[in-house]
Amino acid sequence: MAQLIKLRDCISRYETDIYHYVPEFIRLKRRQWERAKARWEAERDGGARTDGAAEMEEDWLDQPSWWERLFRRRRADEAADEPPTAPPGAATLDELKRQFLEEMFALQLRWASSTVGHASSFDESLYSDETLKYLLQRFPDTHLCFYRPVAIVGRAAVELDTVVVTPTAAWCLVFAEGARDNIIIASTGRFWVERAGAVERKRVSPVASLRRTVRVVADIFEKEGIDWPLHPVLLNRYGYIDSGGLFPFVHYIDKRNYDEWFSRLRRSPLPLRHGQLKAAAALLRHCASFYDERLAWADSEEGGP
């Protein structure tokens, strides 16, 4: 499950220490999945294990990390930020996995919109955002996602397209999609054409937005001394892109080569890399964050444990 490092202009826990939170998320997700799976198997087996074995397992699984203990001491809304345990009512292991991913998705939105003492508001529709779910639920834990971040360029706030920093490169992604089996025809003008059966309509060219994202990210990397490959992508998972040989700097991914591209990223065996974390940290330093103080935590801290 890819990690949501930055969500638009929300404050993120990764901003406080990306070198801690990225591996911590991987450890936490693995631990919580084993916990959910063990409980599901115990319920399915009708409590066949001995009480002593179950108690020993629970003791091991319930060991909190230092930051979990810190959160439990400092927050008033403790239950809301708890990581998922065992989703109820799963009939099969595949169903349990789906439920677990949904709960982890909700947890990631909280991580990407709050720190210990501050929180940002965001549109509730993100909980059902299929593009965001695709990015987070279909790619490995080592992929770091900046979902439509807002970068600070000089004195201006610039909205970017999605950037995914992997162990090999930073991918700037624009989803150029529409009806299934459509054909999106590129041109040098402001508008492209989408054909779906007998229906034809104009759509704004995605190249200007993609070019802006690539330029801003490249400038940040140069300013921060980051040497990390950068790949611009126009993605149409369900149809085709007729590029006409235009914009050779763009990787066009459509139904003809999507499976190969997706499998290569999804099945990458590479671990997290220091250069990757440096690249992600550099981007975070140049992203905008708007937030408020979490007053409940502040009041709790002033009042003591």
Question: Main traits of this protein?
Answer:
305 residues, alpha/beta
- Strand composition percent: 15-25%
Number of strands: 14
Structural class based on helices, strands and sheet pairing: alpha/beta
Helices, by number, come to 9
Biggest sheet details: 6 strands, mixed
Rounded Rg: 22 Å
Distance between the termini: 35 Å
State the helical fraction.
25-40%
Strand order, largest beta sheet: 1-3-6-7-11-13
Shape: globular
Report the order of strands and helices. EHHHHEHEEEEEEEEHEEEHHEH
Uncertain segments: 48-80, 297-305
Mean pLDDT: 86
List the helices and strands and how they pair.
Elements: E1 3-7, H1 18-44, H2 51-61, H3 66-74, H4 93-111, E2 118-119, H5 130-137, E3 144-147, E4 150-153, E5 156-159, E6 162-165, E7 170-175, E8 183-185, E9 191-196, E10 199-204, H6 207-224, E11 230-235, E12 240-242, E13 251-253, H7 258-266, H8 274-285, E14 292-293, H9 295-302
Parallel strand pairs: 1-3, 7-11, 8-12, 11-13
Antiparallel strand pairs: 2-14, 3-6, 4-5, 6-7, 8-9, 9-10
